[in-house]
Amino acid sequence: MRVAIAGAGAVGRSIAGELLENGHEVLLIDKAPTAISVERVPQAEWLLADACEITSLDEAALQRCNVVIAATGDDKVNLVVSLLAKTEYGVPRVVARVNNPKNEWLFNESWGVDVAVSTPRLMSALVEEAVSVGDLVRLLRFSHGDANLVELTLPPESAVAGTAVGDVAWPQDTSLVTIIRGSRVLTPSAEETLEAGDELLFVAAQAREEQLEDLLQVRREVTES
C-alpha cells in the first residue's frame, strides 16, 4: 500500500515509521526545509513541497496513493489537503489530524475526510481508560455513516459479564470488533464469553452510544416495594 503523509513533523515521522515497519510505501511531504530530515526516516520517500498546491500533489503522484494522511499542525492545511486528495485525485482513504478540538466538526466527508483523529482526544481517552471502568470512551470518529470507534472496559458487575457474545442483545448499528483480554487480542465469536475487565472495542453509530453504555453497565438491583 502506498501512503502519502502531509506534514513531516514528529507526528508525521512517527506514523511513517510504523507504516514502513509494516511493509508499506511512504511518501513524506513538507514545505519547510528544516522538516526534511531524511536521516530520521531513511526508508521513506521525501518531497519538499507545499501539499496545498496542485502542482506539488501532481509531483507526488497522489493518484497512485491508497491512503493520504494530513498530519500537519495546521487544521486549515489538513482540510485543504484532504479535500484535494479526495476530489482531485480520488484517493480511497483520507485520514486527517485535528489539532484544535473546536474544529473537529469540519472534518467530515464534505472536506474529503474519511477518518478524523483528534490528538488531544486520543490522549484524553488514554487517561480516561486508565482511570475509568465502565465508561464509554470515544477513540475515533468516522465521517461516513456518522459512526465512531468506541471503547469500554467491562466492569466486574456488568449485566453482560459471563454472557456469550451471541446471547447479548446489542443495539442496532453497533458492532463488537475486538476484545482485548490482558495481552490477548480476541476476534469475538458468538460463543466467546465476556469477562469482567475485558476491553471491548465497538464501531457504533453515535446515536447508539448511550444505549450501548447502558447495556454494559452494572447490574441494577431490583427492590421490592
Summarize model confidence as the mean pLDDT. 86
What about the largest sheet? 11 strands, mixed
Q: From N to C, what is the helix and strand string?
A: EHEEHEHEEHEEEEEH
Instruction: Please identify the structural class as seen in this structure.
Output: alpha/beta
Shape: elongated
Number of DSSP-assigned strands:
11
Contiguous helical run count:
5
- Radius of gyration in whole Å, from Cα? 20 Å
Largest sheet, spatial ordering of strands: 3-2-1-4-5-6-7-8-11-9-10
Content of β-strand: 25-35%
What are the low-pLDDT stretches, counting only 5+ consecutive residues below 50?
220-225
Helical content (DSSP H or I, runs of 4+): 10-25%
* Amino- and carboxy-terminal Cα gap: 63 Å
Question: Can you offer a commentary on this structure?
Answer:
There is one protein chain. This protein is α/β, with parallel strands linked by helices. The protein has helices spanning 10-21, 54-59, 75-87, 119-131, 209-216; strands at 2-6, 25-30, 45-48, 67-70, 93-98, 115-118, 137-142, 147-153, 174-181, 184-186, 199-205. It is built from five helices and eleven strands; from the N terminus they run E-H-E-E-H-E-H-E-E-H-E-E-E-E-E-H. The model is unreliable at 220-225 (pLDDT under 50).
